[in-house]
Specification:
The complex is a heterotrimer of chains A (364), B (260) and C (278). Chain A is built from 8 helices and 20 strands. Chain A has 364 residues and is α+β, with helices and mostly antiparallel strands. Chain A folds into 2 domains: 13-237, P-loop containing nucleotide triphosphate hydrolases (Rossmann fold), CATH 3.40.50; 245-362, RNA polymerase II/Efflux pump adaptor protein, barrel-sandwich hybrid domain (OB fold (Dihydrolipoamide Acetyltransferase, E2P), Beta Barrel), CATH 2.40.50. Chain A has a 6-stranded mixed β-sheet, with helices on both faces. Chain A is elongated, with a radius of gyration of 24 Å. Chain C has a single domain (46-272), classed as Orthogonal Bundle (MetI-like fold). The chains are: A alpha+beta (364), B mainly alpha (260), C mainly alpha (278).
Chain lengths: 364, 260, 278
């Protein structure tokens, strides 16, 4: 789906081989993406993965060394930022400290020479949308972090841009507020039907909000897809580990059969899992399975390993058990924390089992 | 040790302020021979200073030259400071150190060179020209003040303005200038002060008819010390005090607003 | 704006610097030494001027006075900067005020005020006579002593502000760590604080020395007939003897030394700190 042509619609964004070099290093390396109109799309990756540089190129603040940026088919690659017409929300909000809330939100309309008569209701509507009508006269220093965030959003949407870019907009907020703002941003995006491109390093945030997300690493896109898909069917170990907890059991491919492969672990156990493409036997690979798919005992499925319980930790609603199964294999098992459940004590020998259907064999 | 340091520092501060304070007090003494402490106090010497057409003319020349220097240096310095903060160019430090040369090169040499050229161009005594020459001396001050002021302006604010559709001129006028305004005002004040107090260049470049206040003080100190000098000096100290006061007030206002 | 286009905004400032500062300097040297006089005489000219008795004496005087001033300024400035770096609130503001006000007061006014104090009939002699400590006025003005006082007064703020900037950068935890390891107050100062502030001492001493060797106003007004510094000699050859080539040679010499020292200053310090930071 990368770089595939998109159906017509307002706010569709196409990145085609976008590249940025700083000296020898390719900070963004031939990134191609097709983002659909009205989609909430996240760029997710660790710091230094190139996600912010990609966003800055879309916004027009960083000039690409190669590739193209198209919005609804129009090439914007060489268009200066002030003529791209994209909304942007900055990590530190970038509220003009010398203007009050009203004037901040009015700024893009004044830049477009909107008449005073038209300007007022539009600013008020935008402020109403973020529930800040009563704060119009305030200045940024008189607002809380969450309120400043809302001003930044109102300012970015008041001129009805087809696409709004958000650069870690919730990074500076504390955890509870962050969740509320996630819901609010998502709600506004749905109501206005705009495309949002959202950069974050917080995988939970990306999973909660996105229609689709792209995982970036070392300037490249590792995988694109709906969060559920990427979570359940990562293409490689990096994606598997970056998006949530993952068990990765190393081994070699033993045999391949009809979209499925069997992996022989170092201690000789055979484990089965699904595969995407053709794989040849004998190749080094890893079996991936999420901790919540594993069960203690034999009831979980045909894949089985034996080991001893090493430690147990309570993570609120779930309990995480680590089982060591020789040769450096540590399995993590997450179970719902239902008070009455009996948990094996550390040191006891257990069997861990899971279904091949939730397992995937990954290369690299 | 605990007592020694504050005492020592207090003593030096006293020595620093004493000459200035004494001159100001002398300026307010009554008519007659200047002595300290004055027997009587009056505005006599200020009246003499401002009542004398020659002194008034000098004050006027100093003001005009100062204003020209202030405008020229602030405008050029502001653009240069912005370029230093936001531009990408190799050897910023070297370029900056070049622009600071006017305060490093002995002013006597600069003045003689300027005089040498001005004499040929028949510009000696031309107020605008003296103002422009002062601007070069004021430029380093302006630049250093505005560099630190513009470094406090978040680059994302400019980016935000661009992303909201503002062109470069609007970003400059509506975002950069207002945010840097306290620094710009400070820079302009100190540029004015640098010119207003400048002596050596004025000594060479102003004609007999266009002497500035410092030049007249200099001539007077060389020939015969008129008691009016105390009042003129107190006036110059007053201008410095005013500039520092405004700058101090601006700093107080700037601090909380800049914290983002 | 693209960063490289932003750089073009430096043009007005550099145009000013070039046309009104660098060009006159270049024109002055080229004209007096190569056009108005015979270029083949240049060598003889240089030797004659630089090796003249007057010039040699001026060089010695300039160096001696500049050295005295630098040391005095350092001795007076270090405690003030130390005090400032460790105080806040009212006392800090008060001391900064006392340093800053003279800093921005016209040099001619500052020099005049010391002349009022030090003159034959000046306030100090008056006071000493009134106290019957002396019968004849002390020769306080028009000698090297008064030059050093006047220049110290003008240059002290540069030293204080430079040292203050360096001292503000010293991590206080290092001092606490030294105390925690059992070091005494004097030892902490000698082994930790002094080495850490050494950078500021070097920068401050350099800038004060650089500005000293080109000083004109204060020595011209407060010095005696025999205390002639290089800058004064240059001014005299233009104003009194009308010896332009001589002035050019001396200027070239003084300028070279100044630029050489500025190059050292450039290497060891951040030029943005030239005017200090408060």
């Amino acid at each position: 789906m990368n770089g595939a042509p998109l159906p017509d619609g307002k706010g569709a964004l196409d990145l085609d081989g976008l590249t940025k070099r700083y000296g020898e290093e390719r900070v963004v390396d031939a990134v191609s993406l097709g983002i659909r109109a009205g989609e909430f799309f996240s760029l997710l990756g660790p710091s230094g993965s190139g996600k912010t540089t990609t966003l800055m190129m879309i916004a027009g603040f960083v000039a690409p060394d190669g590739g193209a940026i198209r919005v609804d088919g129009a090439d914007l690659t060489r268009v200066p930022p002030q003529r791209r017409g994209l909304g942007m929300v900055f990590q530190n909000y970038a509220i003009f400290p010398h203007l009050n809330v009203f004037e901040n939100v009015a700024f893009p309309l004044r830049a477009r020479r909107v008449t005073e008569a038209e300007l007022r209701p539009r600013v008020q509507a935008a402020l109403a949308l973020v529930r800040l009508e009563r704060f119009a006269e305030r200045f940024a220093r008189q607002l809380s972090g969450g309120q400043q965030q809302r001003v930044a959003i109102a300012r970015a949407i008041v001129f009805h841009p087809p696409i709004v870019l958000m650069d870690e907009p919730l990074g500076a907020l504390d955890k509870n507020l962050r969740y509320d703002m996630q819901v609010e941003i998502k709600d506004i995006q749905r109501r206005l039907g705009m495309t949002v491109i959202y950069v974050t390093h917080d995988q939970e945030e990306a999973v909660n909000m996105s229609d689709r997300l792209a995982i970036m690493n070392h300037g490249r896109i590792e995988q694109v897809g709906p969060p559920g898909d990427v979570y359940q069917r990562p293409h490689n170990a990096f994606v598997a580990r970056f998006l949530g907890e993952a068990n990765l059991i190393a081994g070699t491919i033993d045999r391949v059969h009809a979209g499925e492969a069997a992996l022989r672990t170092e201690d000789g156990t055979l484990l089965r899992g699904s595969i995407d493409g053709p794989l040849e036997a004998g190749r080094a690979a890893a079996l991936f399975v999420r901790p919540e798919q594993l069960a203690l005992g034999d009831g979980g499925g045909e894949n089985r390993m034996h080991g001893t319980v090493a430690r147990r930790s309570f993570l609120g609603s779930t309990v995480r058990t680590q089982v060591d199964s020789g040769r450096g294999v540590h399995l993590l098992i997450d179970m719902i924390n239902a008070g009455a459940m009996r948990m094996p004590e550390p040191g006891s020998a257990v069997t861990v089992s899971w279904s091949p259907a939730c397992s995937r064999i990954l290369i690299g | 040790m605990r007592r020694v340091l504050p005492t020592y520092v207090g003593l030096i501060c006293l020595l620093l302020m004493a000459p200035i304070v004494i001159v100001v007090i002398l300026a307010f003494s009554g008519p007659g021979y200047l002595q300290f402490p004055p027997k009587t106090y009056s505005l006599h010497w200020f009246a003499r200073f401002l009542g004398d057409p020659q002194w008034r003319a000098s004050l006027w020349f100093s003001l005009i030259i100062g204003l020209i220097a202030c405008v020229v240096a602030t405008v050029a310095g502001f653009f240069a400071a912005y370029a230093f903060v936001r531009g990408s160019v190799r050897g910023k430090k070297l370029l900056l150190s070049l622009l600071l040369l006017p305060i490093i090169v002995p002013t006597v040499i600069t003045s003689i060179a300027m005089y040498f050229l001005s004499a040929r161009l028949h510009l000696v005594g031309n107020l605008v020209w003296v103002g422009v020459c002062h601007a070069v001396i004021a430029l380093p001050v302006v630049l250093l003040i505005l560099l630190s002021s513009l470094q406090g302006v978040d680059v994302n604010l400019e980016r935000a303005a661009l992303s909201l559709g503002a062109g470069h001129v609007r970003v400059f006028l509506r975002v950069v200038v207002p945010l840097a305004a306290p620094g710009i005002v400070s820079a302009a004040l100190f540029a004015f002060l640098a010119s207003f107090d400048e002596l050596i260049i004025s000594l060479f470049l102003t004609g007999v008819r266009t002497q500035t206040l410092p030049v007249r003080i200099w001539n007077s100190l060389h020939l015969e010390i008129e008691p009016t000098i105390a009042a003129v000096s107190a006036f110059l100290i007053g201008v410095t005090g005013l500039v520092l006061l405004i700058d101090g007030a601006l700093r107080m206002r700037r601090r909380p607003a800049m914290k983002l | 704006m693209k960063p490289h286009r932003t750089t073009l905004l430096m043009l007005p400032a550099f145009a000013m610097l070039g046309c009104i500062f660098l060009a006159p300097l270049a024109w002055f040297f080229v004209h007096t030494l190569l056009i108005d006089s015979d270029p083949s005489d240049l060598r003889d000219q240089l030797v004659a001027v630089l090796a003249s008795r007057a010039m040699l004496r001026a060089i010695v005087t300039t160096n001696w006075i500049s050295l005295l001033v630098t040391v005095t300024v350092l001795l007076l400035g270090y405690p003030i900067a130390y005090y400032l770096a460790n105080r806040r609130g009212f006392r800090f503001t008060l001391v900064v005020f006392c340093v800053i006000v003279p800093y921005f007061t016209s040099i001619i006014v500052r020099t005049y005020s010391w002349m009022v104090l030090l003159g034959r009939e000046g306030l100090i002699n008056q006071a000493l006579r009134d106290l019957h400590l002396i019968s004849d006025p002390l020769p306080l003005l028009y000698n090297q002593f008064s030059i050093v006082i006047g220049m110290t007064y003008v240059l002290l703020p540069y030293m204080v502000l430079t040292l203050f900037a360096a001292m503000k950068g010293i991590d206080r935890n290092l001092l606490l760590a030294a105390r925690g390891m059992g070091a005494s107050g004097p030892m902490i100062f000698r082994r930790v604080y002094l080495p850490l502030s050494r950078h500021g001492v070097i920068s401050g001493a350099l800038i004060v020395f650089i500005l000293s060797i080109g000083f004109f106003i204060t020595p011209a007004l407060m010095g005696g007939p025999s205390d002639v510094m290089v800058a004064m000699l240059i001014e005299r050859s233009v104003e009194i003897t009308l010896d332009w080539p001589g002035a050019a040679v001396m200027s070239l010499f003084l300028l070279s030394v100044t630029l050489l020292l500025y190059a050292v200053y450039y290497r060891v310090t951040d030029v943005r700190r030239l005017m200090g930071t408060v």
